[in-house]
Design goal:
This protein is 47% helix and 10% strand. By secondary structure, the protein is an alpha+beta fold. A six-stranded antiparallel β-sheet has the order 1-4-6-5-2-3, with helices on both faces. The longest helix is centred in the C-terminal third of the chain and has 18 residues, at 249-266. It starts with a helix and ends in an 8-residue tail after the last helix.
Amino acid sequence: MTLSTDAALLHWGERLFYPGNRRVPNAAPRLRGSPAQRAAALRERIAALVQRRAPQVMVKVTGGGRGMCAITAHFHYISKHGRLPIEDERGDVVQGREELDLLVDEWRWGGSPIEEHTTRREAYNIMLSMPRGTDPSIVQRATREFAHLELADHKYVMVLHDHQANPHVHLSVRAESNHGHRLNPRKADLQRWRETFAERLRGWGIEAEATPAATRGVQGRDEALWQRQARDQQRLRREVIRRPIAIAPSHFSARQAWARIGQVLVRSKNSLDRNLARDLANFMEGRPRFAVPRLSPQRSIEKGLRDRPSEHRR
C-alpha cells in the first residue's frame, strides 16, 4: 500500500460511502483519523459490502400522529396496550395501562398542548430494524444511542419488538422540540439516520451497513407491486410492457467511482487489495445498473492488470 493508493481510495471512497459529508462537513458519522486510518476504514467498508455482503440496516418513517388520538393509538400499539415496557428520552421505563395513561398526558401537555385531532403532524413514528439472528438487546442499545445523537431536545419513546422475525424498535418522537423547533425529516436526514444507526451497531460488534442505494447499484422497483402479486397468483391476464428505468446520475457517478477504486486496488502491491479488486468486479457484474457497454467490470480489472506498471518503472 502506498500513499498514492490511499489518497486515491479516499478521494473516490468518500464519494461512495460518505457523499453527504462532502457537502456538510459536520454531518455525522464521518471518517476520522489519519489518512492511513481513514483509508483502512474505507477498505473495511468496501470489503463488508462486496465480500461479506453485510446486512443493510433499515430506518423507516412509518407515519406520524396528527393529534393525541393518533399518538395514543400508536403508543397502545407499540406497547401492546401497556404489556411491553416503554422507555423515554430520559431512560425511564414505564409499563402497564396506568403508566401509559400518564405518559399520554405528559405528551399532551408537555410543551405546546397537542389537540385531540389536528391537521398538523405532532409526532413521527420511526422503525429501526435488523435481520433475523441479530441480538435484540444490541438493536435496542444502538437505537438508544441513535436517539440520543439524532433526536436530542425532543420527547420520544421507544419499544423493542423481539417476538417477530426481525428484531426492531418502534420509536415515536414528538415533532416539536423543547426549544420550539420542529422536526421535518427529509431524504438526506433518513440516510444520515441509517448511517448513525449502522455505526452504533458496529460499535457493539454487529456487522451492519447503511450504504446509499446508488452505491449498491439499486434504484426503485423494476415492476409494480400489484403486477408482481398478480403474476404470483396467476391473475395477470396479459404481460405489461415494462419500460427500462432511466439510470439516475447518481448511479453513473457511483459506477465511475467503483471503476476508479477497482483500478487503484488492482494496481496495488498488496495482495489483499488485488483480491478485493476481483471481488469488486464480481459485485459490479451482479448489478445491471453498473454494467458498462463493451467493457465489463471483470474486463476492466483485467485491463488494469495488463496496464499495471512494471516493478522497474517509476
